[in-house]
Every structure is written in C-alpha cells, then in structure tokens.
What does this fold into?
Amino acid sequence: KIEARLHNSAALGHDQRTELLNLLGQLKTEITELSKTHQEQAESIASFAEVSASEATRKSKNPQTLRHSIGGLQSSVGEFESTHPKLAAVVNRIASVLANMGI
It folds into this structure.
C-alpha cells in the first residue's frame, strides 16, 4: 500500500519519491528481521509507517496529524535503538525526509 501511495502521489517530487521508496525498501528489510522475534512491534511499526506515508502524500496535508503519525513511528522503534540500530536509523531518516518536505 505504501509503495503504491508513494508512486501515485502528486504531492511528492521525483527526488523525494525516490528517496522515500529506497527508505521504504530498507524499512521492509528491517521490519522483516524484527518480526522474527517481535511480531506485534513489527506490525505496529509498519502501521505507523503506512499512516505517515498516507498523511505525507495527501494533497491537503494536516501538519498536526502528520507530526503525530511520525512521532508514533519514531516512538514505536525507540525500544529497539540498541538492538536494531539500522531500523532506528531508517525510521529517523524517513522522519527527516518528511520534515524536510516543509511539513
């Protein structure tokens, strides 16, 4: 769903779309690894990522809702920063890209 939303969004420029799709690929890899030991947390992270992408790609953005969804995404990986540093880094980069979009 997220990939389709990113591909079809008129709210994203080419560079933003490319970077977010690359980060999404990395996030999928990290979530797959996490799901082997922490299924519920992996599902939560994926859900927050989907909501964040949905909010970021809307034509009419609600900055407060987007900030909340990004905050939830970052919070959902907080407990894994020491055990899954790549996951935390990817999520932080996604949050940064979305923030740099002027949201």
User: Anything to note?
Assistant: The CA atoms of residues 30 and 86 lie 7 Å apart. DSSP finds five helices and no strands in the chain. The two ends are 22 Å apart (CA to CA).
